[in-house]
């Protein structure tokens, strides 16, 4: 789940430029039945280099490059690791984890997600009390990594949307603290703009290092950042 409008399969794979799809900016053939904001988002998506690169390389979303960059620093998505992916749709983060050797991974999302073997994919509301135990049952043991790309549907009121986002992050953080192995890692998408102090305080109490990171694949004009907590102290 993201803060952006749902991605629509309206763009053909790039046919010119390099294998990353770089070439002349693409133009949408028609704006019929689209709002100006939707038209602008689609145009940006078509011409974004990371989106083109994702299409060319078979990733389901440009978000794959965000988690790739984070893991280049953290080195936690590796063979033998147990991973839980919260809000996995459309599956880019899980794709990267599998590509890097993770075979024991469970993901959950409200939206349907096409299979990504060997990952277990659950279509369910993560805030449902039954969800956490089900994820743990499918994973078969304590995770080394809990990563969350969750974001609620926005209502258009900036402060309300931000509070709802932070509420989801707190729920994800509390879940991670309740299930992670000692030394484990928690990664969550967040947004700059205040109200992060409570969740940062929770993370600092339970992890040895807590940072905000902004991958290069995250658009420069976006307030998106990633909370990265490493070295879980244990319960």
Can you describe this structure?
With 235 residues, the protein is α/β, with parallel strands linked by helices. It folds into two domains: 1-58, no CATH class; 63-232, Vaccinia Virus protein VP39 (Rossmann fold, 3-Layer(aba) Sandwich), CATH 3.40.50. Helix content is 35%, strand content 18%. The protein contains seven helices and seven strands; from the N terminus they run H-H-H-E-H-E-E-H-E-H-E-H-E-E. It has helices spanning 36-47, 49-57, 63-74, 92-99, 131-139, 158-179, 197-206, and strands at residues 82-86, 104-109, 120-123, 145-148, 185-191, 207-213, 224-232. Strands 3-2-1-4-5-7-6 form a seven-stranded mixed sheet, sandwiched between helices. Strand 1 (82-86), helix 4 and strand 2 (104-109) form a beta-alpha-beta unit. Helix 3 (63-74) crosses helix 4 and helix 6 (158-179) runs parallel beside helix 7 (197-206). It is globular. The protein starts with 35 loop residues before the first helix and ends with a strand. The model is unreliable at 1-29 (pLDDT under 50).
